[in-house]
Each structure stands twice: as C-alpha cells, then as structure tokens.
Amino acid sequence: MKSHYAQPRLGTLSNMADVSTLPDAHDGEPLTDSLPADLVADVDRIIDADTDRLVETFKDIHRNPELGFAEVRTARIIELALQNLGFDITTGIGTTGVAAIYRNGDGPVVMYRADMDALAVQEETGVEYASEKRVTREDGTEVPVAHVCGHDAHVTWMLGMAHALIELKNRWSGTLVLIGQPAEEPITGAKAMVDDGLYNFIPKPDVFIGMHTAPAPVGVVVSSPGPRLAGTDQLDILFHGVGGHGSMPQKAKDPVLMAAMAIVEFQTIVSRMIDPQQTAVLTVGAVHAGSDNNVIPTQALLKANLRWYDPAVREIMLSAVESVADGIARTYGMPEDKLPEITLKGGSSPLVNDLELSERMARTLAAVLGDQQIVTDMPRATGSEDVQLLKGPYPEMPFNYLLVGIANHETFAAAQAQGEPFPFAPHNPNYLVDLSAIPFGAKVAAYSMLGLLNRS
Predict the structure, then answer these.
(1) Helix or strand run (H / E) with residue 3
(2) What is the distance between the alpha carbons of residues 87 and 83, in angstroms, rounded to a whole number?
(3) Looking at the structure, do residues 218 and 236 belong to the same domain, yes or no?
(4) Assuming Cys at both sites, which of 68, 157, 203, 437 could form a disulfide with 406, CB separation 3.0 to 4.6 Å?
(5) Is 427 annotated as ligand-binding?
C-alpha cells in the first residue's frame, strides 16, 4: 500500500552549526562508504510501503507511554515484531530490557539501541493520539506520562529498520544486535541491563550506534565526533527537621526553610566554584515537603541533577552540595546524626562519539541524503544519555550517536522567524515528532546499519 505520508522536504540547520564540507556524492569517484543506488532504492521502497504500519505503531506507543522500568507493553511490541522477523529474543534484561539477535553469515556484529521509556509530563500537543495516561508511582504520587523526548520514535525506527534489513538479507552479511533499553530518563537502564548479564545473551559487538530525535527539521542528521553530551548525576537530598505547628516555628526546626536556602545557595556552586570555561549545570527539579498549610513537616526532599564533562568538576559539585546542605542544617540546629542524607540514584559518563566511525557514517549518509543535510560539527550539549554505558566491559568499542531532525518544516520556520532556534525542546509538553519523520528515521537507521555491515 502506498503511504500517504509525504516524503519530507529536506532542510538545513545553518543556525545550529556550520555544515562541514563533505565529499560530493555525485561528482568524481564514488565514496568508499557509499551505498549502492539500487540498495538505497530498495530500502526506500520497503520503508515507504511499510510507512502506514510504522506510523500506527508510533501512535500506539505514543498513546500508551510507560515510565522507566515499567515498559512492559512497549517491550512486548518490540519482542513480537522482531520475533516475527526471525530474531532470537531475550526479554527481561535489567527488568524490562530486550535483546534481539539476527545472524546472517560472516561479517561484523553491529549493535543498535532504542530506548523505550517516557516522562512524567502532561502532554499539550493537542494531536488526536496524545497521551492521556496517568500512573501512580511507588511513593503514592499520581503523575501524567507522555513521550516528550521521542523514545516512541526511537522504537518505531528500530522496528522499521529491522523489517527492511530482513527483507534485504541477501544484500548484506553479519550479525544484528538490537536493544530495547529501559529507563534512559533516570539514567539507570543501560547499567541495569549490563549488570543483569546483557553480554551473557549477546555476542560482543564490533561497532555500536544509537539515534535520538532532535527538534531540527525533518531531513537533517547530525553525526558529529568527540564529546557530544555531558556526564550526569541524579541525586536526592533529604533534609531532616523537627515538626511543629506553623504558628510556633520557634518550637520546630523547619526542613522546608533549610531546603529553600539550599536551593538558592546551590546556585553559587557553579557561579563561584567552577572555572567559567568549564561546563557545569546544577538543577533542582523537584521539591517534596509537607502536606498541610499550618504544619511544619519533619522532612523535605530535593531532587537535583548535575551536568559535567570533566570528572574533576563533578567532584567539586558533589562535595559542595554536601557541604552546603550540612552547613545549612547545622545553622538551623540539626545534630550531627540528623544531617541531610544524599543519595546518588543514577548517573552516566559524558557521551563521546568515535572520530573514525562518526566520519564514516557521515559520509555514508551524505552520499544518500546530500551533503547539506549532514551536520558534522555540532556544538556539544549539556543534555545527557546512558546509551554508552551499554558498552559494559568493552569501553573501547567504537560508538556513534546520531541526532535526527523530527520537526515540521513550517513549525521550525515559524520559530526561527520569531528568533527562536527551535520550536520546542525535549521534555517540553509540546514536543512533537512530525509523522513524516517516522519513515525518514527508519530509513536513516537502515542506511546506517547497511553502511556498517558487509554488503554483497
């Protein structure tokens, strides 16, 4: 069936980064990393014919988002789809993770990851397939859930790519290792899969890639070498106090006030303790304390996160957070055995793309999409990922992480006309993957994988 989702007009991203000049795919000798034209045409034909199914899969996952380590339904979608294609499947790795293997003769082992989890955000896109889901967390709080970071697209791209590669299995050889990863958002899922024995179920990859949505125009792909995303730590800071009546604060020790003072003073850590030329971010994302207007509670909890590239910067921030919190608690009269408790919940190292692999994949994609669609010198960002932790015991494994544009062209142009670089940011309630990005991302994934496998 011919898809009614239009092939996206390709757009540039000149305001984000200068597009490096790559060898012209159409002049002179063919690139060594180029895919044969007939193979590209076959990928396009297969994915175009599969687009309606892929879009419906995307909408289904979008309507039914699941938080980290609760991706039971999404993992089942991956399991069934890949099982039907002939993959060997292992489920339940790191709680809900999926590993799928397809052996197709001699050749490299290429691993590809798609993360599955959503966020506790109320979606505001207004699309007919928007999430209305709410869940109750372990602490009893009820939260909305939505895919506002594109993980629903990531899963769909992987399934579309897998379908195309199996249809074309006579054109390549090697081994596919596809990973459905839980809990990327709390930065704990990759480590959980490795700790749960991921490499007991899969062969050691020769090369490893991942893809993520970006609020750039559909048609743009970033393949940029070196440090790309910051390291991160997620930490809880629990202040203890002495509860009491709101009318008699002198009889209590107010943990809400301690937490409030800490939030303000934490901001001086980056501004006064870190070299201004270093990357450092400290954000308090949540405050949990009390339940009544006239009651001073016994505890106040801050949920914070750090971003860094230099491990020395990380150590300064962690040490300073503890010093600030302890100092405030002591100032308000808390004894040594009731100082704040700091819990490190999850974290990741900076994401670094392999130079040779990044350049190789950029050449492959430029030869298909056109040089001006490939950004190779994107400035590094302060967002974070844990995909690289899937390397586990093989830290030298070549790895590259692509960013794929998903924004509607008109929406993107309107944002730029208003002086905004992007129409929305990840984790924003209005984050919206244009439906034309679904087949496009699947094609990018297929081109990328075929560029790394042996081809016949």
Answers:
(1) none
(2) 5
(3) no
(4) 437
(5) yes
Please indicate, yes or no, if residue 30 is contained in any of the structural domains: no
pLDDT by 10s per residue, the chain, length 456: 333 344 444 444 433 333 333 333 333 333 357 999 999 999 999 999 999 999 999 999 999 999 999 999 999 999 999 999 999 999 999 999 999 999 999 999 999 999 999 999 999 999 999 999 999 998 888 999 999 999 999 999 999 999 999 999 999 999 999 999 999 999 999 999 999 999 999 999 999 999 999 999 999 999 999 999 999 999 999 999 999 999 999 999 999 999 999 999 999 999 999 999 999 999 999 999 999 999 999 999 999 999 999 999 999 999 999 999 999 999 999 999 999 999 999 999 999 999 999 999 999 999 999 999 999 999 999 999 999 999 999 999 999 999 999 999 999 999 999 999 999 999 999 999 999 999 999 999 999 999 999 998
Within a domain: residue 21? Answer: no
**149 carries a ligand binding annotation:** yes
Q: Does 123 carry a binding-site annotation?
A: no
Q: Which domain, by its residues, includes 293?
A: 231-348
Is there a binding annotation on residue 167?
no
286 and 387 housed in the same domain: no
DSSP of 294-363: TEE-SEEEEEEEEEESSHHHHHHHHHHHHHHHHHHHHHTT--GGGSPEEEEEEEEPPEEE-HHHHHHHHH
Is residue 17 situated within a structural domain? Answer: no
Q: Per the annotation, does 138 bind a ligand?
A: no
CATH number, domain at 282?
3.30.70.360
301 - beta bridge partners? 238, 288
